[in-house]
Design brief:
alpha/beta, two-stranded antiparallel sheet
Amino acid sequence: MTSAIAKRALELRVEGVGEALDRFEAAWNHLDEGGQLAPRHVLALADLPALIRTLSPARWQLLERLASEGPLSVYALAKRLQRDYKNVHTDVAQLVALGLIERRGSQVAVPWDAVRAELRLAV
């Protein structure tokens, strides 16, 4: 299904501080030369183990459920996932802190239409 509404995508990257600073410098130089930048939403994690800890299978399932069903309370989310409330609450808090989900009053929701991952091999 294609929509005229702009899609919001989160870029998930495995990169070190040096690469993040390189992206910042490139954007700065582009703006300094009179260019314009499209808004980008990037979550950079230091390494693959950090990515795997951050997006465990249980957390990915949580994101998928929220994306398919829309905003839910943490309690309703835990019931639908058939998981312990405390564990879901912990996962939600971590994902909110990282910007993967957001709070909307007493509910949480996924603000992204897509999460795109980029994993570069060191050369």
